[in-house]
Request: fold
Amino acid sequence: MLDEIEGAVQGHRDGHGFISRDDGGPDIYLPPNEMRAVLHKDRVKARIVRSDRKGRPEGRVVEIIERSSQPIIGRLLQESGVWLVAPEDKRYGQDVLIPRGGIGNAKTGQVVVVELVEPPALFGQPVGRVKEVLGEVDDPGMEIEIAVRKYSVPHEFSFSCTALSKTLPDAVRPQDHANRVDLTDIPLVTIDGEDARDFDDAVYCEPATQGRGKSASKGWRLLVAIADVSHYVETGSAIDIDAYDRATSVYFPRRVIPMLPEKLSNGLCSLKPEVERLCMVCDMFVSLDGEVEAYQFYPAVMWSHARFTYTEVAAILGNTRGPEAIKRKERVGDLLNLHGVFESLQKSRKKRGAVDFETTETQIVCDENGRIEKIIPRTRNVAHRVIEEAMLAANVCSADFIAQSKHAGLFRVHEGPTPEKKEILRGYLKATGLGMTISDDPKPGEFQAIAEATKDRPDAMQIHSMLLRSMQQAIYTPINSGHFGLAFDAYTHFTSPIRRYPDLLVHRVIKAILQKTRYQLPALPTPGEAHAKLARRLEKGAAAKGVSSALKPAKLNAENTAWQAAGLHCSANERRADEASRDVEAWLKCKYMYEHLGEEYSGVVSSATSFGLFVTLDAMFVEGLVHITELGGEYFRFDELRQELRGERTGIRYAIGTRVQIQVSRVDLDGRKIDFRLVHAGQDLPLRPLNEKTGANIRSKQDRPNREANAKNKSPSTAQAKTAKARSAKPVKTAAKSKTVKKRR
Reply:
């Protein structure tokens, strides 16, 4: 008898699917005929029956263990007198039939939330009823309403949580000062972005000396004060349960879904200027070489003496006699001290060989109606780096404190590249003729050395991208394996308990150690999906896909299992938040680019694949696909080692970093994808002047295409247009899935 394998179904917009196995093995391919009776996120048992033409294990569903309880979001349509909902998430490969009595107050074309009443069968579509009407597809903020439900992001606090938050005080009370150090006379300040609403960290630095006499050493006393959320959020309380369920705040353009109720996140726990606030402090002595030679943790009461922005601090550090410095003259000396400890910590970073790739993050600026006005890069200045180094130092001290105390807790672990990724990277570096490679057991310094040696090369972008892609994703786990990218033996998250649940747990553990007790994770009313996944994987003896490989059977006691499940839950919800945010940004960018069909832009190739090139535009940092069929009338072969497409007849190459001129040809709002047409390519491509309003290249009348003719030529077929008209406000379609690479610490 063939082995039966359990796992969760992952649908695909093209009609097929995969089973993500509980035992951590390779995904099992499900052909379209096997997907007729199941839906995305169902749990099933399957048998492997063959390997498909791509060598993937192909399965057959033998039993449906559990139907997904997640509601489906889509548009209500009427076709030939039949009501149905076309899912917004195309991983659900079937429309949902709605009986006339299940429509409620919904109207044709509205976006609705559907609850299934009958699952799909081999010869029957799923049946559901309208549970909630979200509104019209073009309503401002609709993309966010869809995303929070599509990714099951908790967006409403429970009644118990809201009621409990109302009982909290409005300010720090006299009794709250008990057993706390009074730091109200220390000029701690907050430094954040212009649009920040909650302030969870404050800093102060002064020159200091450690020791006496000849053995005395000079350095810096650095204080990092973090909002003491754990004082107000008790373990197992209604607020704590909601916070654990969310695990993180989720950030969208124009909207934030906070982890904590607003009374805490923007009130009691926000380190606003000139009000008392409770905090946990990491008090460090940093040598002139950037080594943290001593530290201590303690609860305190603070008074923020100023609220700075990154832009303001950078201006002051750049000119201590400028107008910004004159306005804040009483704090200029403190800021210079912060810059001094930053320079010391930078020495330590360089000595460790920590990986430090500069990446460009973007900010979407919207008007009052939610329409994109512009997309701009988030520039990192010296003030960002000053705060980053201070936070890294506090996080390292937190990890060391927990590890030295032998107390269970969550570490932020970033392991080195897998053997497969090492081989791919070695092959690529060899193909480029760089003369540098990585060892069998690579250290972060090897990656940084390659990045430094290649930063001035024309293909630097391509090389740095490959270095970044070879690394694994950081996770939360109770088993400390160090942080590869930052080159730390132990690292955790301590500095953002307002918006990250792991930080709140770290605060509780540190407090327990200070009080010489032991913190116990609460028994949750409902363990949750992460706990169930962990139980299944541990039961099968697997330690893959988020379950630390360091968990040996001998260590699987109740405490370790609880912490491992908490780490798995927080890691999964962090990825969920990222996916939801990216989904909204992608929709907004598609909406924006639809208004610029036919426009020409300059850009660079950000990724090469077997089916085409992904290009990122210079003006707006929007990524789209130039399909391989748009590259000309010759055959192109994908070189995996060099990560490039090469024409067999002409030898022309398209690799990461190649400059191109493109035209926006298609936009698919449903699929969150943009298609480009290649106009010209070459590293010496002249940059045309940009239209200040749209970012498009200014063209002469001779080379300006007729937008109406272009739209007509690029229109979908009659059948496609008919379906698109009913299901999408913008009837256009593209071919392949976009990819993004994001650095995660």
Summary: Residues 541-554, 686-690, 698-745 have pLDDT under 50 and may be disordered. Residues 595-727 form a domain with the OB fold (Dihydrolipoamide Acetyltransferase, E2P) fold (CATH 2.40.50.140). The first strand starts at residue 5 and ends at 11. The chain has five domains: 5-66, 73-137, 159-404, 411-487+526-573, 595-727.
